[in-house]
Structure formats: C-alpha cells, structure tokens
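Final paragraph of the annual report: two paired records, presented back to back.
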Amino acid sequence: MILMNSADKYLEYISVVRRYSKRTQDIYSGVLKEFTKYAVPEAGNQDQITDEMLKEALTPLVIRGYIVELLETRKMSPRTVNLHISVLSGFCGFLMKRGLLTSNPARSVPRPKQEKRLPVFYRKEAMAGYFAASDIFAGEDISPSPDEFIQKYLARNYRPGYRPEGDPVYIEMSRLSGKPERFSALLFEKRLKRAILSTLYSTGIRRAELVSLKRGSIDFSRRIMKVTGKGDKTREIPLVPSLCKEISLYLQAVEATGCGSRKLDMPLFVTSKGTPIYPVYVDRAVKGELGEAEGFTARKSPHVLRHTLATELLEDGTDLNTIKELLGHSSLAATQVYTHNSIAKLKKVYETAHPRAKSGGKHGD
C-alpha cells in the first residue's frame, strides 16, 4: 500500500462517511500533498512513497519541522498552520484505525498561538440603506421599457449632490438603453444579485447552501426554505414575507425571460443566460452590490452577511440555541463566538455613556 492510496481512501472516507464538502476535500488533499513533499523529498513521485517512508515521515519531530517551514519560510499565519496540523491529525487517526500507525504524532505537537478574531459584520443601518437604494430593481414591473425605467431611477435617486454622470449604474443603463434585450438582461442581473443578497442576509445560509438551492427548496405556502448544509443535514428556515415576495418576483422574471425551467429540481438562482450560479458568481455579486452602496467598510463577502444576521439576532434577544439551529452549526461553541461582539459593544456603550465609567469609578464607587 502506498501513501497516495491511503490518502485517496482517507479523502473517500471524509467524502462518503464524514460527508465533508468538496472544498474541504480539496483543502485536505492539498495539505497532504504539501506535507509529503516536505517530509519525503527523496521520493521523486508521490506514488513511490511506501508504508515505511510514511511511518518515518509521520513523527512529532518531522511535523514540528514542517510547522517551522510553514511559519518561517512560507510566512503562513498561525491560523493556516493550525489547519494543516488538524488535517494531519485527522489523517494520522485514520491511519491508526488501519494499523499503519500506533499513535497520533500530530497530537503531541504544540500548536502556534493565534489571535482570536471577532466575527466581522455590517451595521444594520448600512444594510437598510442598501435595500432602500436597490429596491427599484426588485419591483413588480418585470419588463419595463428602458427610457421609463431610467427616468424612474433618476427620480428615485435625486438628492442634493447626486450626479448621474458619476453613477456607474446609470451610465451602464444609458449605454444599453437602445438595446432592449441587453437592457433587460442588465435589469435581470441586478434583480438576481439583490435576491442573492436578500436571501443570504435574511436566512444566514452559507454560500454553498445558497448555490445548491432548488426551486423546490422554497415552500411559499409555509414560508419555509429547505436547506442542505454540511454533512448533508437538512434544516428548515422560516422566510420573512418580504423575502418570499422578492423570490417570487425573481422567479416571474426568470419565466418572462425564458432562461430557466419550472421544474422543482432545477436550480433556484440562474443567470440571464439560464446557467446556475456558482460560488465565484456569489462572491462577485456581494462585492459588486455592496461596493456600490454606502456605509460598507468591512470586507464584502457572503459569510459576513451570515455573521451580520447572527449578530443582529443576538442583539435583539434571540437565544443561542435558536441561532445555532438557524445557522446549521453542529455545536453551540460555534455559535457562542457571536456573544463576543455583543459584549464588546456593551463595553463600548458603557465606557462612553455610563456616568461611573466617565468618572473613572470615583466619588465613592
């Protein structure tokens, strides 16, 4: 038996038995290949690694050297290095079960310390501002004429200091105003991107969960979304009426353009050409939409929208177990990280507003 065969069996195990995502499988595969390149440099090819080479490579001393290589030579962050160690530890545990190792060497290796990072989130006011500004693209008029829509857009955006010639959306609409089909495709894409952001923000689902949604995932009568998360676990998420309406109007636009199927097993979100959305498309949609809006200084990603919903729910008094079920966390520990944001906010309010904090605790306190 050779290492690559063992690695393949391990990747098959985390895929079939543990049901890890494709992205996680790719990460694990990459870590194993990087480690063997470092630990067994004499092997010209991965397929030439024998069981004996494997046993010699997977030792605390070699793993410590690998950690130093990652930290000092490759300048990886402690967080990334700890990910490598976790992958090696899981792989060693798998090899122990198969009798290739008698102990797990990765567990005896100290892990580099990493700073605890609070989840980044957007301000509620910024999110409200985005939805107010983009509401025109989620209207009930599925196929407006270019000239009428542009005039409506200008009237809606008029305010002191507003310059249409500096508005990239207006410039693009004006450029396509004489091309009805391309103009309709532009409006459809804006509707789609807003629906993507609305869904991410209202439900807190992961990017991969959003991409995997089917038409049948939405039960409009019950206002429920069925989501398949990590480990193929299915959960139901309640939908607010406004999101139900937006998704319904989006589906009407899909049918009006003839770019999608009505079958329940077909992808929910598709582009103007009828192709299913993919992870990079979602990333670009979030970055593009929030990049044009005001009040967004943090990194713009789907996961920050997930953090934002969790933080808002916690601040509104929602209990941790409910948030855990909504987000699809496997343990409460993953959800508890959001409490740090609330504590930090409470401390800031106390320090800036409370009389005792202003006086430094003097006057008998």
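The closing record of the year follows.
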Amino acid sequence: MAGIYKIKKGFDINLSGKARSVIGGELTAEYYGVRPPDFPGLIPRMSLKPGDRVKAGTTIFTDKKKPEIRFASPVSGILKAVNRGEQRRILEVVIERDGDEYEDFGKADPSKTTRDEIKQKLLLAGLWPVIRQRPYHIIANPADTPKSVFISGFDTAPLAPDMNFIMDNSNAHLFQTGLNILARLTDGKVHLVLNGACEPSPVLKNAANVEITYFSGPHPAGNVGVHIHHLDPVNKGEVVWYVNLQDVIAIGRLFEEGVYCHDRIIALAGSEVIDPQYYKVRSGIAVKAIAGSKLREGDVRIISGNVLTGSNTGIDGFLGFYDSLITVIPEGKYFEFFGWAKPGLKKYSFSKTFLSSFFRKKEYRLDTNMHGGRRAFVLTGLYEKVVPMDILPMQLFKAIIAEDIDAMENLGIYEVAEEDFALCEFVCPSKIDIQAIIRQGIDLMIREMS
C-alpha cells in the first residue's frame, strides 16, 4: 500500500459504546425533518406551507440568495409544521410521513449527459446540497467549476461509524455511478481517500474513475480538510468540492432510478446506548424512532453527529442532513470541589494532568461537564499539537477576533472549517468556543468577498 500519508499530530478520544458491526434493521418514523441550520450561510425561503402534500423529492424551501438551490422532502406525506426560533428563524421543517411516493426526475446516462445537464438535474431534485466547497465550508456554488473533488472514505472522530462496514452493505453499482457523475463536474481529479491503517472495503478500493490515496494517524486524519490541505491546497480564488461517502450513492441513484432517495446507514453509539449498532434510515428521521427505546436510564445528551462537532438534538430532534452517527453520552450537570487536585484515574485529558494519561487505549465513559469556566486565551502550545496542517491556530484565532482580513488570508482561512479545530476546543484550557470563532471568521470573509 504505497503512498500513505502518515498524520502524527492529532488525538484519539477513546469513548465507550462503539457500535458493533451489525445492522439492526431498517427504521421508519412518523415524522421527518429538514433543518436549515445544517447548512451554514443558508437563508431559507419556504416554497410550501403547512398542510401541503409532498412526495420524496418535492422542493420544500430554497436558498434566498441562490434560489436555484433547492431542498427536498426526504419522504412523502404532509408538511406538518415550520418550527421557528428567535427572529422567526426557521429551525426545522417537519413532514408527517404517510407512504412512499417519489417525484420522477427521469433516468440519465452519465456518459451522455453534459456538465450543465448534470448540475440542473442535481439542482432540480434537491440533491445539490450534498456537494460542499472549500473555501468557507458551505454548499457549493453551481456556477463554479472546482479544480478537484474530494471524498473521504473513513472517519476518525470519536465513535465514528466504520465506513468500510457501511460500504460492504451498500450498493456498489450506485456508488460507482455517483463517482462517474462527480468526475464530470471537474476538469481535475476526483480524490477518494481511504484508511491506510486497515484493509478497505472492496467497494472502495476497486472504485474506478478516481485517484485513491491513503491516510493514517489519529483524529483528524479522516477529516476532508486535512486531505485537501495535503493533496490539493486551496488558494485565494480557487475552489475544491467535497461529498460525503454515502451521498455519492444518492447521486448515483438519482441518475440510475430518477428519484431523490437520501437513505443511509447510521450508527447509534455511546456509553448510554444499551446495544450500540447500525440501522438503515432515511435522512431527517426523528431521533426518537432510533434511540427512543434503546437508552439507559438517566440524564443523557443525544447528539446528531459526533461529540466534537455534532448538534444537541435531544430526543425530539431529527437526524442531521450530513450525519451518519447519533451519539448518546451522560449529561455532566455537577460541580466538583478541587477536581483538579485529584489523581483523575477516571478522567480524560490530552495533557499529563491526570494519571489517566498513561492509559490512552482504555475506553472512557465521559460526560458533558466542562470541568472549569471560560477564561482568556492561555498560551500553552496545545493547539499546534492537534492540528496536522501547516497553519498557526492561535494566530488565526486572534486574527479572526481582530477582524484582520489580510492576516486571516495569510493564515489559511480559505482552507479550514470548524471541524478542523474541534480538537483545539477539546484540549483548550480556556474553554473557548473555538469552532464558533472559526465560523465567525468564515462568515466575515463571505461578506467581504460578496
């Protein structure tokens, strides 16, 4: 296996409750939701109102700034509610499922379809949002032509699903069709990045029309931002697109079958899950249908995604658009007197503050307690140890806070996303919301460039 990129900087958080390699069946729910906050920078404009009937693939809202970008209903039924938050911001659109009717977008042969026709088909069917871009970590601009496309074939986040297991249980033909479609959208390469620490699924290692590269190392070795940084860095004026592994299958199904079918295999994991395993679901499924009867007693936090970058949905929330994992961990609503002075055998720390640092391979049942309050930035050099990119994290954070556009550009703002600094937030002794700072900087750059 030649050409492995070995990532040394980073950190693996060993949480208990990893999903065992079993698919517990196909789950359905009464309600499904599409959440506009899953799409950074989106200002949704409703195309329907509560009470309207929809099919799977029916447009329910569009992007106010780019109305050609549509967002589709994952199921057929009745648009039940539009839930709003502060300043009437749309938080979720809820659909009550009552069947399996699909909008017919027509089949198409990728080899006989032009680039513009591919874009129009993806836009019309509401599948365009699966394609995102760097810079800015937002939905790709259909007017652009990327210099390359990236697909990450593994995930190193805490309790992340095993993508090899998922692909072993997925349709290889539809996956290859999706790859062929993506290859038509760029004049450059389609990079498929696989895990160099284990044997990849035959579906992945036998994929055609792509350039396969291997990465290994601790988290965030599986982040697409790390792959882009090492293989095809983004400079000012350049654009790189990327797509989640299972979303490639949805693209292939659209062209092979003519329908919007955003299905996926997800992992239900975490120390508070009775029997962590995998399930087949439709995107946007109600969390209660997945986790409702499978949790231990007690106060828990249910996260759509991983513990570093996921969103706190609660039992009444919905699976995120890009997520293939639901994590359940204990809430940490308690105070600990002189906790820093204890040996800390049951605690977990990146530094050698506690004795647990000598047992890195042990699995821990961690909760949400922050073990301290927010304070000013402390210069410790920890951030640089968990960012495997040629970027100075502390300097970038300060440039964003100061709104220094030139410094942000020079320090690599075009290459990064919040997830690339999630570990900085974990190891931060100052308890600072670093991911929020990165998004603040990205939003500032978008405003400056528009």
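Residues 383-449 form one domain. This concludes the annual technical report; the extension proposal builds directly on these records.
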